[in-house]
Write a structure and sequence with these properties.
The complex is a heterodimer of chains A (482) and B (426).
Chain A (H helix, E strand, L loop, with lengths): L2 H11 L4 E2 L2 H4 L16 E3 L4 H14 L3 E4 L16 E4 L6 E5 L4 E4 L5 H8 L4 E2 L12 H7 L6 H4 L6 E7 L5 E5 L10 H5 L8 E8 L1 E2 L3 E9 L2 H13 L6 E6 H11 L8 E9 L1 H17 L4 E4 L3 H12 L1 H4 L6 E4 L2 E2 L5 H15 L3 E6 L4 E8 L6 H18 L18 H4 L2 H14 L28 H4 L7
Parallel strand pairs in A: 2-4, 3-4
Antiparallel strand pairs in A: 1-2, 5-6, 6-10, 7-11, 8-9, 8-10, 12-14, 12-15, 13-14, 13-18, 16-19, 17-19, 18-19
Chain B lengths: L3 H12 L4 E3 L13 E3 L4 H14 L3 E4 L16 E4 L6 E5 L4 E5 L4 H9 L3 E2 L12 H7 L6 H4 L2 H4 E7 L5 E5 L11 H5 L8 E8 L1 E2 L3 E10 L1 H12 L7 E6 L2 E9 L1 H17 L5 E3 L1 H16 L4 E6 L5 H15 L3 E6 L4 E6 L3 H15 L5 E6 L2 H6 L10 H11 L11 H6 L1
Parallel strand pairs in B: 2-4, 3-4
Antiparallel strand pairs in B: 1-2, 5-6, 6-10, 7-11, 8-9, 8-10, 12-14, 12-15, 13-14, 13-17, 16-18, 16-19, 17-18
Helix pairs in contact in B: 8-11
Classes of the chains: A alpha+beta (482), B alpha+beta (426).
Chain lengths: 482, 426
């Protein structure tokens, strides 16, 4: 990178806020999707919002692309650096700015860890609902970028349902606030548009989150089945009975073996297990939980264990949340896929995956949020065997095709990032993609903010018709530029 | 300006004479009579109409049942009122997946009647639920009391198909409950008042219809008691589907919709909590409960008067009630207020005297703006609109909104003047 540009960056963040050495920069070449790598031109670690603005202003002026990164736990290469670009690491913006328990709000900086939010508000009897499996390490800024989900999103929704306000640095370095602690801010729902935009529209520097009251009662069961089909039938039965559990998770035999080897949650030996959790007022939980037990039994569950206490519930969940990492116990390498299907198509799509497993010769573990149809096939391979990595990627693509054919999506929570750009046309027409990119053009006409992500073909924004003029809102004193 | 008969002939060439009518007082929006009302029978008709209007830079206002067309600012001129009423099919109810895809012109009532066959529903209780259309509800992001538990349309929408200003039909989101592929334009369109595109179809996440319901009502409360009674609920582990305030004199309503045992117990617990606050609550169920909620709706929406939507922090609600009551008393005004005490969205209705309404809106804005709140005009006479801004201050997000609008509607034909910055631009 140009010496003058680097010098200007150094002036902004100081010597301790910049990583220039090539070996050090290698640390940042990928997020948790490690097969996609690009060494960033330079890494900066701002510790104030003002520094973020100044960095972006420099990039804007010099036409240098920039990518924001949180804790790097993303699984789609969304935080993969731009070649010859600036990687803006937001881990130092990690302060909790305000806790307002009476209004069920908390204001945090993007580098705060997901689980830390719940920890900090637990003394008030509150928690933050979205709980991605990586919640111990992933950052709220990353959650906002990806619209992260988690096991308990079935009942409580995703990140977008829990973000009320954002402060962002726009692609030209301007600071703007969208939404806020008060709901229904006049104008377009830019918070709704920004959450899940994978860092391609702006850099989030402050987030107002909605908190929930910890429910009166939580009950969790683990049910074993002799096939994924009968476990799937139990899921359908629960939904058909008008019950929305807070979580319904399914794991198949290969995944159960892997987690037993890794964290010993003492799961029953079975072809499939379901974890079902019901929460809410005690009377409601008692009623619904007994019905869920009955449905599991009627669907042929061979064994049902009800978590006797908090520790046993934690053990059930440790098995589920460790599933991805545990695959390392049964396979030297694995590729985590993330696709969605309407939950009624579960048996059909799982059968297709099984056929694919046989024809490809690669073992596929299945762990998924069964309640909302979000599949996470874990494709096992050995990179030291010539061609297997490529084959695993091919198998992953094939599974996405099944998802789209079933009416689903190519990603439920990991994002498109750099990984699934080529799959977007499977789901969306050219007009759809062009229309989405109008949003991008409105935010980032020069395409500097996390380029080459989400969209297969960048749209040339061009000039919006009409000469630039002083905005009437500015003239009327309704808005001012920062 | 293009002559009406020329527009009518032109539109008829595009969508056929049966789909075109000349605008009348009945189809007017706050006194602005549309030149032509176009009601295409299918998506292609909407698309072709827009293509034609786009080239000619006509002012197009999308409309459903026209129950909320004057919310926000009013378009100064309407060449085409583009009605989606004939697109009224419930396209698919995937009950096993708890989702449904419906066309924009279907009424909420019609949709929920259909979903009830499988004991499911779209848990929105927007204003005018008998006639309000899905398209209009999405375009206004209008949610009623049950928002407390289920959220607003933006929280329930999963995907959208809409016609762009240039007539191209685009989709975003999908039909599954979980999906992060591409930008979620359904959220952007929700609440955009028809200024970014014409909503054609929407897919929603549904909920099982609750088997039983109980409503606890506490009446004749001092505004300070309202605050205590509301925090007693929000600080508890009760899960009401609605927590409403209305008055003055102020009443609180808490609704519990779940299995019988749980709705009964939660209602009992609420009675206990509210008694400790000094209230004498009553429990309603069955027909009396339904009647109570209908009255709650009608008191706000079915009486004459200027209506404002007030957004504020839930903890600021008691203070606002106090100020509102004092304001009415001091100036001898007739007024009413109702809304989501737990969410922080209230609606005020005052008489039709523009001076009085202006006083109310300006007083409330002066209190709320520094505290991050806002007051938006929903219903009001042209005289009132001439003297107060419908939206109030927009902050620094205005710049981005303007850029978004220019990208989606470069010729500025969609709902001109209706969206927040539109007011300043016309």
């Amino acid at each position: 990178m140009e010496t003058r540009f680097l010098k200007a960056l150094r002036a902004v963040v100081g010597n301790t806020g910049i990583v220039e050495d090539h070996a050090d920069r290698l640390t940042y070449e990928s997020d948790a999707l490690t097969y996609l790598r690009t060494v960033p031109g330079v890494v900066v670690l701002p510790s104030t919002v003002r520094q973020v603005q100044d960095i972006v202003r420099l990039c804007h002026a010099a036409g240098v692309p920039f990518v924001a990164r949180g804790h790097g736990t993303g699984l789609s290469g969304g935080a993969m650096p731009a070649e010859d670009g600036v990687l803006i690491v937001l881990t130092r913006l990690n302060r909790i700015l305000d806790i307002d328990p009476a209004n069920l709000r908390i204001t945090v900086q993007p580098g705060v860890t997901n689980l830390d939010v719940s920890r900090r508000v637990a003394p008030f009897g509150l928690y933050y609902a979205p709980d991605p499996s990586s919640q111990q390490v992933c950052s709220i800024g990353g959650n906002v970028a990806e619209n992260s989900g988690g096991a308990h999103c079935l009942k409580y929704g995703f990140t977008v349902h829990h973000v009320l306000g954002l402060e962002v640095v726009l692609a030209d370095g301007t600071l703007a606030k969208f939404g806020g602690p008060v709901v229904d801010t006049p104008g377009f729902d830019l918070v709704g548009a920004l959450v899940g935009s994978e860092g391609t529209l702006a850099i989030v520097t402050q987030v107002v989150l909605r908190l929930l009251r910890i429910p009166e009662e939580v009950r969790t069961l683990l049910a074993a089945f002799d096939s994924t089909d009968s476990a799937g039938a139990a899921v359908s039965g629960i939904i058909a009975a008008g019950i929305v559990p807070s979580a319904v998770e399914m794991m198949d035999r290969l995944t159960i073996e892997a987690v037993e080897a890794a964290v010993q949650p003492n799961f029953p030996k079975a072809e499939a297990v379901l974890i079902v959790e019901i929460d809410g007022p005690a009377a409601e939980v008692t009623d619904l939980f007994s019905r869920v037990e009955a449905i599991c039994r009627d669907s042929g569950s061979s064994e049902i264990r009800v978590a006797a206490d908090i520790d046993e519930r934690a053990r059930f969940w440790s098995g589920r949340k460790a599933a991805f990492a545990a695959m390392g116990r049964v396979s030297p390498h694995y590729y985590v896929q993330d696709g969605v299907i309407p939950r009624t198509k579960l048996p059909e799509v799982l059968r297709r995956i099984r056929v694919l497993e046989q024809s490809s010769g690669l073992r596929i573990g299945n762990v998924f949020h069964a309640g909302d149809g979000n599949l996470h096939p874990l494709i096992c391979y050995d990179a030291s065997v010539e061609g297997q990595a490529a084959l695993a990627a091919e198998v992953g693509s094939e599974i996405l095709r099944y998802c789209v054919e079933a009416g689903g999506s190519i990603t439920g929570e990991h994002g498109v990032g750099a990984d699934k750009v080529a799959h977007m046309p499977k789901m969306f027409s050219e007009v759809d993609l062009d229309t989405m990119q109008r949003l991008r053009c409105a935010f980032d006409p020069y395409g500097l903010c996390n380029p080459k992500k989400i969209f297969p073909t960048p749209r040339l924004c061009g000039e919006v018709p009409g000469p630039y003029r002083v905005h009437p809102a500015e003239r009327a004193g309704l808005a001012e530029r920062f | 300006m293009v002559a009406t008969d020329e527009l009518a002939t032109g539109a008829a060439r595009v969508v056929g004479t049966k789909a075109v009518a000349v605008g009348t007082a009945e189809s007017s929006v706050c006194g602005v009579v549309p030149a032509v009302v176009v009601s295409p029978e299918d998506i292609d008709g909407v698309s072709e109409t827009l293509r034609w209007a786009h080239g000619r830079r006509l002012a197009v206002v999308p409309a459903g049942a026209s129950t909320k067309l004057e919310w926000g600012s009013v378009p100064p001129r309407i060449d085409l009122l583009l009605s989606t009423r004939r697109l009224d099919a419930v396209l698919e109810h995937r009950h096993g997946d708890l989702t449904a895809t419906v066309q924009a012109g279907a009424s909420l009532r019609q949709v929920n009647n259909r979903l009830r066959r499988q004991d499911q529903w779209l848990p929105l209780d927007a204003a005018y639920p008998d006639c309000a259309t899905i398209g209009g509800i999405v375009a206004t992001n209008d949610a009623g009391p049950r928002r407390h538990r289920y959220g607003a349309p933006r929280d329930l929408i999963l995907g959208v198909t809409f016609a762009r200003a240039d007539g191209e039909v685009a989709s975003a989101g999908g039909i599954v409950v979980k999906n992060v592929a591409g930008y979620d334009l359904s959220k952007l369109l929700t609440g955009s008042l028809g200024s970014l595109g014409v909503i054609l179809e929407a897919t929603f996440k549904l909920t099982p219809a609750p088997p039983t319901s109980r409503t606890v009502v506490a009446s004749d409360l001092e505004s300070s008691m309202v605050g205590r009674a509301v925090s007693a609920i929000t600080a508890s582990q009760l899960t009401p589907s609605a927590l409403e305030v209305q008055g003055p004199p102020f009443s609180l309503l808490a609704r519990f919709e779940t299995v019988q045992d749980a709705s009964e117990r939660q209602a009992e617990e609420t009675v206990g909590l509210w008694r400790r606050c000094g209230a004498e609550p009553q429990v309603f169920t069955g027909a009396a409960e339904v009647e109570r909620w209908k009255a709650h709706h009608d008191m706000l929406w079915c009486r004459a008067g200027d209506v404002f939507r007030v957004g504020l922090l839930p903890t600021d609600v008691p203070d606002l009630l106090c100020r509102f009551e004092a304001l009415l008393g001091r100036h001898g005004l007739d007024g009413y207020l109702a809304g989501r005490a737990g969410t922080g969205v209230l609606y005020t209705r005052v008489g039709t005297d523009p001076a009085a309404s202006k006083l109310v809106v300006e007083t409330l804005r002066s209190v709320l703006t520094p505290r991050g709140g806002h007051v938006v005009l929903l219903r009001g006479s042209p005289e009132l609109r001439a003297t107060v801004s419908a939206w109030g201050p927009l902050g620094d997000a205005a710049w981005v909104m303007d850029a978004v609008k220019r990208q989606f509607d470069p010729n500025a034909i969609l709902s001109p003047g209706r969206w927040p910055l539109g007011e300043a631009q016309v």
